[in-house]
Design a protein that fits this description.
Helix content: 40-55%
Strand order of the largest sheet: 2-1-3
Number of helices: 2
Distance between the termini: 37 Å
Oligomer: single chain
Structural class: alpha+beta
Length: 139
Amino acid sequence: MSALVTPLAATEVYKWTDDAGHVHFGDKPPASAAERVTIRSAPAPAATSPQQDRLHRMLDDYARERQTRETNEAERAQAETIRERRCTVAKRRRHAAENANFLYDYDAAGERRVLDGADYDAALARLRADVEEACATPP
């Protein structure tokens, strides 16, 4: 983190005192007489001190740590969203299979084959395992 210091150019300013005795400054003279005052900028600061360098390094480190933390949190949130979607899809597939009148698979020739007995039970077991895997909270 660094600060940019730009010296101000000399500016023409007018100074006047009103009837009540109040002193005023402005960039345009009033209708009455005003004294012209020239304001010069302060001299440029000396080179940065070791304390300022240390402060800048520390602020840069904090900014990097914050950026890393925010990136990690965004990645975790995105991973959680993906996990929730996969879980929802897996639950829907399991629910549809459990409530279907029959399940089928495709054989090597690409023909539908209705599942029964052990094949039916194995397909339901796979769908239930898919739900467990998709919905498991990561460590």
